[in-house]
Structures are given as C-alpha cells and as structure tokens.
C-alpha cells in the first residue's frame, strides 16, 4: 500500500531537518544521503515548496563535497525555478533571496571551473547566469544587483574566452561589461566598487589589445584604468593592495 501525500511530506520534512543537523556537524556526505531521501519523498508527494528548499541546500552540499558538475546542474535548475516562481510572485522575498544566492553560486562556480581549466563547465555557468540575469533586467532594468552581476559575469566570461584563444568574443564581453558599469556609475558616480570593477575590465581590455599588438587600444584602456585606480587610491591612502594595482597599471601603461 502506497503512502499518503501527507505521510510523504512528513518524511520529507524529517529527512530535510536531519540533513540540516548533519551539515551543522560537518557530516556532509551523510547529509547528502538524508537530503536524497527527503527529495525522493517530496517528489512522490509532489510537494513543490519542499523541493524548492531541498534544491537550495543540495547545490551547496554538492559543492562542499567537490561534486562540482552536479552542483552546477543543481544551481542552474534551482535558478530557473526561482526565476519562474518570482515572475509569478514578484514580492516574495524568499524567491528573491534564493535567486540572488543561486546567481552568486553559479558565478563562483564558473570562476572555480575556470581556475581548474574546465572551460566548458565554466562557460556553461556564465551563460546560464547571464541568460537569467538578462531576463530579470528586462523586468527590473534599474536593479543594481542584477546589473552588477551582469557586469562581473561578462568580465569573467571575457577572461575565459581570452584564455580559450577567442579574443574577438572576449573583446565583445569586455565592452558589454563596460557598458553595464557605465549604467551603474550613472546613478552612483563615486561608488568605489563599481569604479574598481570598471578599472579591472579596462585592464583586461588593455591586455587583450596588447596581446594583439594594437598599442593604441592598449594604451587608451590602461590609461583609463590607471586614472580610476589613482583616484581610488588617493581616497584610501592606506590601502596597499590598491597602491599595488596603481603601480602595476602605470607600468603597463608606460610600457606600451
């Protein structure tokens, strides 16, 4: 005799709570086993809200266990689900927070794959995040979180494509990132985070032009990056990391 939906929901909640307890104790492998039981019960009960919470935890668990490909699939699916739910209930804070979390997780995972040399998975992570982010920006064009995410991901995607030997596609991503930062800076012209990110992309674009032997383009972008970093450093004279960035950018600018 099959179990009733109510009984299956109780089992799903029990295993989900057990998962959280095991995670707090650092027993992530055991936690994943409990989460799989929770997911099985929730699927049989056809309980969407419980599955939503399970997905939110599963990606992080998989990543903690270095099961990165599986984590990527989970984050992507959870992101798509969150975007769909948010479109149906725009004021729901849980859906918004989960969507933001999934975007950040996808971006971080894309960066991790890039460092590991797993370029196809890195590309997939960036593309998935950007696709959802562009849809969200169409609905919320003034949302700074989505713009910031788009700018950073476009820059990182450009770095990936440049590493993969696709400079023209990389250049396109860098230029899109700069347009995004310009929109952010239009409303917050002195925001140090936006300025720093813009300088980073300008430096990347300068490196690209330099690699192609296009000295004028390289010099122009290095100079713009240098001016931004110099002003930021003047406002934070004790920031040694920023001073080092100024020094390195000046060296590249003068060497062209």
UniProtKB/TrEMBL annotation:
InterPro entries: TPR-like_helical_dom_sf, TPR_rpt. PROSITE patterns: TPR. It comes from the Archaea. TPR repeats lie at residues 158-191, 199-232. It holds the Pfam family TPR_12. Keywords: Repeat, TPR repeat. The keyword Transferase does not apply. The keyword Repeat applies. This is Tetratricopeptide repeat protein.
């Amino acid at each position: 005799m099959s179990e009733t939906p109510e009984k299956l929901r109780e089992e799903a909640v029990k295993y989900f709570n057990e998962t959280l307890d095991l995670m707090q104790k650092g027993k992530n492998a055991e936690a994943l086993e409990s989460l799989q039981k929770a997911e099985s019960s929730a699927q049989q009960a056809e309980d969407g809200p419980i599955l939503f919470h399970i997905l939110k935890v599963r990606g992080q668990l998989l990543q903690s266990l270095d099961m990165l490909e599986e984590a990527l699939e989970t984050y992507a699916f959870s992101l798509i689900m969150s975007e769909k739910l948010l479109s149906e209930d725009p004021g729901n804070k849980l859906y918004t927070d989960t969507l933001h979390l999934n975007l950040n997780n996808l971006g971080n995972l894309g960066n991790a794959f890039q460092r590991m040399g797993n370029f196809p998975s890195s590309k997939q992570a960036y593309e998935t995040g950007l696709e959802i982010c562009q849809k969200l920006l169409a609905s919320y064009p003034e949302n700074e979180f989505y713009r910031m995410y788009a700018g950073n991901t476009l820059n990182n995607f450009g770095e990936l494509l440049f590493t993969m030997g696709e400079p023209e596609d990389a250049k396109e991503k860098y230029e899109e990132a700069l347009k995004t930062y310009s929109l952010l800076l239009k409303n917050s012209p002195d925001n140090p985070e936006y300025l720093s990110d813009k300088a980073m992309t300008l430096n990347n674009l300068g490196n690209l032009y330099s690699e192609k032997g296009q000295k004028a383009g390289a010099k122009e972008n290095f100079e713009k990056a240098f001016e931004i970093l110099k002003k930021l450093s003047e406002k934070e004279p004790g920031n040694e990391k920023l001073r080092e960035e100024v020094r390195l950018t000046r060296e590249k600018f003068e060497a062209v």
